[in-house]
Amino acid sequence: MNEPLVLGIETSCDETGVGIVRGHTLLADAVASSVEEHARFGGVVPEVASRAHLEAMVPTIQRACSDAGIALRDVDAIAVTSGPGLAGALLVGVAAAKSLALALDKPLYGVNHLASHVAVDQLEHGALPDRCLAMLVSGGHSSLLLVDDITLGVTPLGATIDDAAGEAFDKVARVLGLPFPGGPHIDRAARDGQITIDFPRGLSTRKDLERHRFDFSFSGLKTAVARWIEAREASGEPVPVADVAASFQEAVCDVLTRKAIDAAVSNDIDTIMIGGGVAANSRLRALAEERAAAKGIRVRVPRPGLCTDNGAMVAALGSELVARGRQPSALDLPADSSLPVTTVVA
Description:
Blueprint: E1 5-10, E2 15-22, E3 25-33, H1 35-39, H2 46-68, E4 77-83, H3 87-104, E5 108-112, H4 113-119, H5 122-125, E6 132-137, E7 142-149, E8 153-159, H6 165-175, H7 182-190, H8 206-212, H9 219-234, H10 241-266, E9 271-275, H11 282-294, E10 298-300, H12 304-307, H13 311-323
Parallel strand pairs: 1-4, 4-5, 6-9, 9-10
Antiparallel strand pairs: 1-2, 2-3, 6-7, 7-8
Helix pairs in contact: 2-3, 4-13, 6-7, 6-9, 6-10, 7-10, 10-11
């Protein structure tokens, strides 16, 4: 049987992504980002994102087809992120996918954004093992997921109880005077800094671990950094941006990797897959590799371009669903901004 050719559409936040995948082979990954339109606001503005998706959708689909050397009629299925994400942004992608599915008479798969971040790793490292741990870290999510079969569902082990890791990066970057989005700029600044400040590690005390062993909290860390900077400025001393960035980044990566390794060991898992925008962070990758190696655990991380939101990840999950004969979605598929991670196909 020929491997399925699937077109995937991603519009959960500020990236209009269209990917085309045949089996586990990536043929096209076209992305139109509206991040510069949001930068002056210091964060994503939902209405601006929705309008940007409307403007970018058709040109991005055309570019993806051109890059892949295919016509739209050639695809076997259409996959689209149906949630979670910004409601208005999701609606644009879901409406576009429905239109294509109806016009082309192709099956439609409304898929989970987080499950797609797991599936995209297959485009780079081949099929996922029968059982693995996924750590997804982004602006909206910090999650530990037990994955047995990505097409049937995942089991949540832990999640953020307040600010996600990526959100904390953005907010700390703002108080340091660094541009939005904050993650890449903090990563870059940290390379010139020293880890000289002992910032708090959320949910890491013995009492916290009894109730929130695999959960994350970065709100207290974000506040601690802001207060440290305020105290420094109040005393008339310069703020060592690189040192603050390095110390903050270390606190985040320390907690993320410690809990991921603990979850893997506790569940007898020998492979950790890391996805989401924060997975592009160089310190997170290095620390995860170091700590996992000490426990005999393998780490799989897609290249940075596949960690951030993109259509390729949606197409990758769609391709897996088609290959395994999973039931497609109905044409009245809704956009669900709070779609639970346990629902892979809406």
